[in-house]
Amino acid sequence: MTGKSIIVMGVCACGKSSVGEQLANVINAKFIDGDDLHPKANIIKMASGEPLNDDDRAPWLERIRDAAFSVEQKNETAVIVCSALKKNYREQIRDGNNQVIFLYLEGSYELILNRINARKGHFMKPGMVDSQFSTLEDPSGEPNVITVNIDNTIAGIVEQAAQKLTSLA
What we know:
Layout: E1 4-9, H1 16-26, E2 30-33, H2 40-47, H3 54-73, E3 77-81, H4 87-94, E4 100-106, H5 109-118, H6 128-135, E5 145-149, H7 154-168
Parallel strand pairs: 1-3, 1-4, 2-3, 4-5
Helix pairs in contact: 1-7, 3-4
């Protein structure tokens, strides 16, 4: 599996970073945390507790799209973490890229809320879960989307994801 970017997406606390990092190891891919691609202005805004809007996200999504393009051009494989909650965000990432697969980590509101409440020292607060779920546009039915239910261990989620990716290849 080369020349592909697997975008690990979903709401807060669904395990994007943990699953993404372990999946990258399992499939021998580069790991890119999308949070590291935010422009300085976004980092400052989020650090002050202000949520990002679509205008703020545009340059960030462009950087994610460009990272996927670079991976494809170098015939590498990468796992990139990005919430990609809206269809138009996913379309921006797909634009100009032929080998993008979205791995949707799907979980119930209750499961996500329990995970948020169990977190210590994270910027995402329980009240933000509502916002995440109201923003989420389910990617089912879009091209190159794999859905994995997250009511499992990280290892179980990664194993399921790797199997589904292999069957897609």
